[in-house]
């Protein structure tokens, strides 16, 4: 397991209130009835209990999805990414003085933040969808000036993440909620180092279809959040159950709560190898990680194809996409990475039945060094809605 660089921090005078809030949130979370292993009905469809709970709550915890063998593969890649990360935003060198990951500008993007900070809450960043700021605890003595928070376009930097992207049971879940022709969204790895990890202010991801004829309870798709080490109330994501059905007045909710601790939110509680699935319309966020435990989340999302075709990009997940109307050609081009992922997974897990992705039916893919090189910059085609 990754080692902490510094001891854990706390929220100062508010730590006691945070401890109570976490405990109460855990009780609410475990009472929702929205967790369990992936199961199927007799006709092979995703079990109706999972479907019901997901649509009721806006999120679900899929338990024990990732094997210990696969988790070990992911951990090796994660350690390599951390070792090669730049030491400051836009930095060209890693801590060893070598060229940093993605420093060649060919693809991907790494985001660093100040320890325990909230750099976007209450600002106009990300189309202003983070209207309130989270509490920023004082970093512990000896904290580094910057910590890695997000690796964008992560499938080009981690073969293990690429293979997880093609997990057949997860893709069957994607099909159940978004249809057989589901469309990719984007893929990142989130890092919350102990005593240092920054927060992400409350928000709803979807920006395109609110108030339009296309809007429905799943029109902006969902994110899978695969947990390398698990997550808890201190370092994990928090979600407001049922908030995916309409736009939320997050600022008013925060003012009513008198703090950033929304009273109706619950933490996502996961073991290593669990995978959360969260509706992108649900209100969610995370607090600064003052705990002594890492959170590393392999994040990848999918949309209903009908929501993407003809939509204008939101400008958040791919540069210049706010000037682009997504057409079938772009969506199909972005979908091809699933072909490489499925083949890479087949080679690593030959006894597993690969998922058959309908939009790539009849196409063949090879996974080799040339294919790996071709993925550089694939995330410039991310489909943010």
Main attributes of the structure:
single chain; 385 residues; alpha+beta; Jelly Rolls; eight-stranded mixed sheet; four-stranded antiparallel sheet; 27% helix
SS-derived structural category: alpha+beta
Run of helices and strands: HEHEHEHEHHEEEEHEEEEHHHH
Q: Regarding CATH, which class?
A: Mainly Beta
Q: Report, as a whole number of angstroms, the end-to-end distance.
A: 35 Å
Instruction: Give the tally of β-strands.
Output: 12
Choose one word for the global shape.
Answer: globular
Rg is: 20 Å
User: Which percent range fits the helix content?
Assistant: 25-40%
Q: Would you spell out the secondary-structure blueprint of this structure?
A:
Blueprint: H1 15-30, E1 35-36, H2 48-57, E2 59-62, H3 68-84, E3 109-113, H4 125-128, E4 147-152, H5 159-165, H6 168-178, E5 183-192, E6 200-203, E7 222-227, E8 237-239, H7 250-257, E9 266-267, E10 275-279, E11 284-286, E12 295-303, H8 305-308, H9 328-335, H10 337-348, H11 369-374
Parallel strand pairs: 1-2
Antiparallel strand pairs: 2-10, 3-4, 4-5, 5-12, 6-11, 7-10, 7-12, 8-9, 8-11
Helix pairs in contact: 3-5, 5-10
Description:
The protein has 11 helices and 12 strands. The protein is an alpha+beta fold and 385 residues long. The protein has one domain: Jelly Rolls (Sandwich), CATH 2.60.120. The strands form 2 sheets. An 8-stranded mixed beta sheet has the order 1-2-10-7-12-5-4-3. Strands 6-11-8-9 form a 4-stranded antiparallel beta sheet. Strand 1 (35-36), helix 2 (48-57) and strand 2 (59-62) form a beta-alpha-beta unit. Helix 3 crosses helix 5 (159-165) and helix 5 packs across helix 10 (337-348).
